[in-house]
Each structure stands twice: as structure tokens, then as C-alpha cells.
């Protein structure tokens, strides 16, 4: 029975996928004809548009535009090729058509800064259709105006607070030590990407909703994984499709989180708002805003789930890639081990516990993190929509158009970084790089600057410290994939063993 079901699911999946593929191929034939007509009309449009100086570029095929080229580049080791090719043809800011939308792509640091700063609230987020469907209207990632500022300030204030950092430091230490040691007791070869994801998920869920190890955590992890599978998919919604399944998973997640939020609300009502908030749920529950009203519980539940999206995958991927880059660069690894061993020795001698500032004040370790963030480009760009015509550095972005501010292009540009494809933490020792912060935006900027910035850096620092001072490892050959999100092709298999003293 079970096998039959699995088989059936496989068949439906296969069928729907091949149907789509076939559809796409078949569509192309008549489209070739339509294309001619479309081009004629387009040319007229473009001529009209030239007066307003819309950036140059190509719209590619009707409907699919240049999406296939965009995706194909994502599967290579140099995903910026898509940008580079067009940049050399049309200049640093150009026009294209991907994922169902006409888009202006910026590979110019100043233009990106302008877009991020968002003077006069000209820009609102603009994501591919599947993402907007899954996120829902009330997600912080899609909100705009005063509500976004309110939620952003609350969460940012909480995640940046020294109180949270000092208590979460012990939680992170415990999770990292416990998980690594129990892993190593079991097996010698581990898939690092998966293992780190488990650990960081646990920490994130703790920060957001104070759930510890156990059934609830497992359920949450399972459903969350089902949910995010649909973030980048074809936006087609009927039973059997990826998007549909993901939306169902989101419903189950919402139900569970809503239950937790209710429990916490009752607890708060009984106990009052004394002391510090324990987690993000409490932060949102306590806030009364200007209207002296608590945010609706459904809004809070939805936001807690959606807050997991920017936090869940990014931190573990930065750690995994740091391990990968360090493995390929023994000199940098040696320096990192020295610096962290020194701290460990000091701590052992003085018998003091680590404080969070111990971790974040090791300069070489911070340079390793910056260099990893620069090369990893976990968030490779942000997407925005212009609410009115805007002109930036002579480029017109017409009302209603989307802008993709590419971070990867800036981080991998020779104009900004010498030998950009080389992992070189020492480059951060020269002053000047961070001064021109336009050229380094792994966490975005402006009013949407990642509220998890300091928290993430702390978590990564703690992780690296315990990893390099307790273990050594040998990584197997593996490559980075950049589409749809940054991943290791083989999940970075490593053999790991304790350091013998
Ligand atoms: C190394 C890890 C991380 C990276 C590289 C990263 C990067 C980013 C970037 C680039 C943005 C801006 C998106 C935009 O402008 O549209 C952002 C926003 C955000 N991040 Fe992070 N992030 C990381 C970790 C985290 C963590 C751990 C959390 C939560 C605990 C988090 C929560 C958020 C939230 C809530 C936003 C939306 C802010 C808003 O729109 O107002 N991030 N992140
Ligand atoms: C801002 O968000 C609200 C609610 O999501 C939406 O109704 C409104 O149209 C958005 N405003 C703009 C200018 O996009
Ligand atoms: C590393 O990046 C952070 C921002 O993520 C920045 O504040 C810091 O100045 C950078 N370090 C150096 C040495 O430039």
C-alpha cells in the first residue's frame, strides 16, 4: 500500500513535471511567430522609451524572457556570467526580462546604495510570484511603510541587544559542543552542510519561539522544509503542484505556531511584561504601538514563520562555505586556528566563561567571516519595485518596474576587489575596503538592513571557534552551486576527528 502510494506520488510528480516541460517546448513553436510581431511592437515602445533613458538591454523571448540563460548561469561556478555578459554589452545598469517580469538589473554600487536607501519610500519589495504567494501579504519581507518599520525595529532591537547576545551565547555554545561531539562519537564522515543546518535551526527556533529539542522541534523542521521547497518554483497552484504542497505545509506550520503564540500570550497576561523578552514571539506580543493595540495573533504567528526564511538557510551556508574556503586555503586556516587557540588558552588559564565579545573581537576571525560573506553571496541580490519614475545616475526606472540590485556583481568585481575569486581574509586588513561600504553589502542596507546581522556574526564566530579549536577535518572534493540558492553539490562531506593534545 505504502509503496503504491509512493509510486503514485512519483508518477504524478513525473507527469506534472514532464507536462510542464513539454508545454514549454510546444509553446515555443507558435511563440516564435508571435515573437516577430512582439518585436515590432517592442521596437516602437523602446523608441518611445529612449527619451526617458531606460537602461539598454534585451527582453529575450516572450513570456520566458532571458530566464533560461539566467538559470543556466546559476548552475555554473560563475553565476555572475549572466550579469557580466550584459554589463559588457549595455553598461553597469541594464534591462532584462526574467521570471516573468521586465527587470532593471544594477551592477553599480552607487545605484544599489540608492535603491537600498530608498529615499522617500520609492521602492517596495518585489519577489518572484511563487515567493509572494508563499510569503503572504503580512510578511515583513513584503510589508512596506510604517508597519515594516515597526516590526523591523522591534526584531532588530531584540536581536542586537547585549542581553540577548549574552544569553544566546551559552545556548549556541551548548548546541555546538553537544551536537559536534555526539556526531563524532557516531561517525567519522559527516555531511557538514546538513549537520550545521540542524544545529542552526535549533538555535533560530530558540530565539524566535523558545522551543527546545523534542517533538515540536522535529515537526517544525519537517514542515518548514516542505514549506520552503516551493519558494522558487513555477507559480502554478492546484493539488499536486509544488506550490500547493508548500502552501499546505504553511497552513500546518501556522496552526502550530499559533498554538504556541496563544500559550505565550496567556502566560504573559498572567505574569505581566516584567524583565526582558525571552524570544521574538514575546517581543511582538508585548508591543502595543501607537494605537495601544497588540498586533493580531495571526499576524504574529505568520511573521514568526516568515522570519525563519531569511534566518534559516543563510547562517549555516556561511559556516559551511567558511569551512570549504578554509579547507582550500591552509595558510588562512592556520592563522585562524592560532588566533582561536590563543583565546582558548587564555580562557582556560583564567577560568572565566566566554563572553559574547570574546568571540566577536578576534580580528582575523572577523576577516575570515567578511571574506566568506563576500565570496559566498548567500543573498545574491535584492528585488524592488519602483512606485514612481525614479532617475538614478542618469538611468530611468519607470513606475511599476522591478529593479534587481545585484550584490554578487559588486562583490566579485575587480574594480572593488583585487583577484576577486581568491579567498584572501588579509585583504580586510587594509583599511579602505569597509570605508566604501557600498561595495560590501552581504546584509543589504538602508531601512531593510538585516536585523539579524550581529546575531549571525556572533553565531558564526562561536561556531568557528569551537570547530577549529576542538577538531580537525579533511574535506572531500565538492563544488558550490548557486541556483536557486547557494548550496554544496555534495553537502560537503568531511571526515572529522578531535584534535589530540
Ligand atoms: C549570514 C546570515 C544572513 C545574511 C547574509 C542575511 C542577509 C539579509 C539581507 C541581504 C537582507 C535584506 C533583504 C532586503 O533588503 O530585501 C536581510 C533581511 C532580513 N533578515 Fe537577514 N541575513 C542573515 C541572517 C539573518 C538571521 C539569522 C535572521 C533572523 C534571526 C535574519 C532576519 C532578517 C529579516 C527579518 C529581514 C527582513 C528585514 C526587513 O525587510 O525589514 N537574517 N537579511
Ligand atoms: C503596502 O502594503 C500594503 C499591504 O501589504 C498594500 O496594500 C499596499 O498596496 C502597499 N503599498 C504600496 C505602495 O505598494
Ligand atoms: C566586516 O564587515 C562588517 C559588516 O558586515 C563591517 O562592519 C566591518 O567593518 C568589516 N570589517 C572590515 C575589517 O572591514
UniProtKB/TrEMBL annotation:
Residues that coordinate or bind heme: 450
GO cellular component terms, alphabetically, are: membrane
Q: How does it sit in the membrane?
A: Single-pass membrane protein
Could you list the residue ranges that cross the membrane?
20-38
Q: Which InterPro entries match?
A: Cyt_P450, Cyt_P450_CS, Cyt_P450_E_grp-I, Cyt_P450_sf
Keyword Transmembrane helix applies: yes
Its pathway is: Steroid biosynthesis; Plant hormone biosynthesis; brassinosteroid biosynthesis; Hormone biosynthesis
* Biological process terms in GO annotation: brassinosteroid biosynthetic process; brassinosteroid homeostasis; leaf development; petal development; stamen development; sterol metabolic process
Q: Which PROSITE patterns match?
A: CYTOCHROME_P450
EC assignment: the record states 1.14.14.147
Query: What does the UniProt entry say about where the protein is found?
Result: Membrane
PANTHER family reported for this sequence = 3-EPI-6-DEOXOCATHASTERONE 23-MONOOXYGENASE CYP90C1, CYTOCHROME P450 26
Give the family from UniProt.
Belongs to the cytochrome P450 family.
Task: List the protein's name.
Answer: 22alpha-hydroxysteroid 23-monooxygenase
Q: What is the species listed in this Swiss-Prot or TrEMBL entry?
A: Nothapodytes nimmoniana (Nothapodytes foetida)
Provide the organism lineage as a comma list: Eukaryota, Viridiplantae, Streptophyta, Embryophyta, Tracheophyta
Gene that encodes it: CYP90C36
